[in-house]
């Protein structure tokens, strides 16, 4: 009888913790959706901003994989259409899959973007750090930020929380449905941390002195 009571109690505790986790994810999703509401666009409807921020993702053999290529293609379109004048590529310069910044920069140049218009942040280790460093290191106050649709609301909420007047732009992806589903689930689980990051106002993992590389990119001709 004692063992049964223990099992029932453990099951009850597990169910309670599970319900709490669901509640936390749901509440953070609602909060992020509210913060991003009215600030998410498709590429055809995106507003103008001085800079477009592209969030890093995995690369393979020095080339962007599907997610990252989709984001970069949107950035190219925004620059070519005159809706952004410079690109801030932000990711992990020493990522497990390779140097995201070098891969993004080379891809943009191959697509016709002048290298002088591209600034790389090697320490955008997650979305929060990208937004915080965009403000603290590069002086960004207004921007577009490009990522896939399931990720855009969190990116917008984090950047707006960091003090950027930002609009999110949806990027496509020639990805397998299972990949999209897996990343959508991961995104929902990342939202509580995003809320905690904003509430804590933590410093990015790497804090750098302010620099004017983005200002020079915006002023460059070509």
UniProtKB/TrEMBL annotation:
<dbReference type="InterPro" id="IPR003848">
    <property type="entry name" value="DUF218"/>
</dbReference>
<dbReference type="GO" id="GO:0005886">
    <property type="term" value="C:plasma membrane"/>
</dbReference>
<protein>
    <recommendedName>
        <fullName>DUF218 domain-containing protein</fullName>
    </recommendedName>
</protein>
<dbReference type="Pfam" id="PF02698">
    <property type="entry name" value="DUF218"/>
</dbReference>
<dbReference type="InterPro" id="IPR051599">
    <property type="entry name" value="Cell_Envelope_Assoc"/>
</dbReference>
<feature type="domain" description="DUF218">
    <location>
        <begin position="51"/>
        <end position="174"/>
    </location>
</feature>
